[in-house]
Amino acid sequence: MSDPWDVLSTTFDTTKNESDIPSHVADNILIAWPLILDFIKKYAPMEENIRVLEYGCGSGGFAYKLHTFDYQVTGVDSSKEMIKKATVAYGDQVDFLLGDSTVLSKLKHFSIITSIMALQFIENIEETLQDLANILEQDGLLIFAVHNPAQIKEYLQKGILFEEFDSVENPKKGILHLGKNKIPIFIRTAQEYTQLLQPIGFEQLLEAYPPFTKEFSEKYPIVDPTSEPEYLILGYRKTVSS
Known about the structure:
By secondary structure, the chain is α/β, with parallel strands linked by helices. It is built from 8 helices and 10 strands.
């Protein structure tokens, strides 16, 4: 079966010039990225040669952004076409690997792991979180952005983007409809992620729902507006060694 993200690699290409980046990419850059970077600046160790994993790196834009802070960055993604774009654009500065979390066991430990809008597309999330925990050093940071469940609920009520969900009131799994691509998606609350991460040694440091800013809305008018923020952003520290 072909990877739908190969087909969508151009649609979600963060290597384009700023003027060519559409709203569904710019929201990551202008809303999710700053909050994640602020979290890292607040909690990251003040050391040299900090190793960072950007998991589900897509076309590599955020991995490269992390590199500009003098981090040693590795990007991992399961889409061949995404990794190809990332390597062409940033391969001289960032190491990119094709694969899922099973490739991580071959790597050295990281001080920071980031992931932006990737974990909600993973059904066996417990295995992935354990793989991430195994590769993160003690006192390391894990921060990720996923869909805000409240926004999914509102979209379902309006019949926009999402379909075939198990519930409208308490959506857990269904389909994200992007053009001709139907992508399975798995929605989890902040509490559910924390309940999965606490037993494997993580302490929650951040739960945030950053709203669309006035600047973003003026530059990128939202075609299907909702009253709920798009992102749920969660940050953790690993307190137990693997």
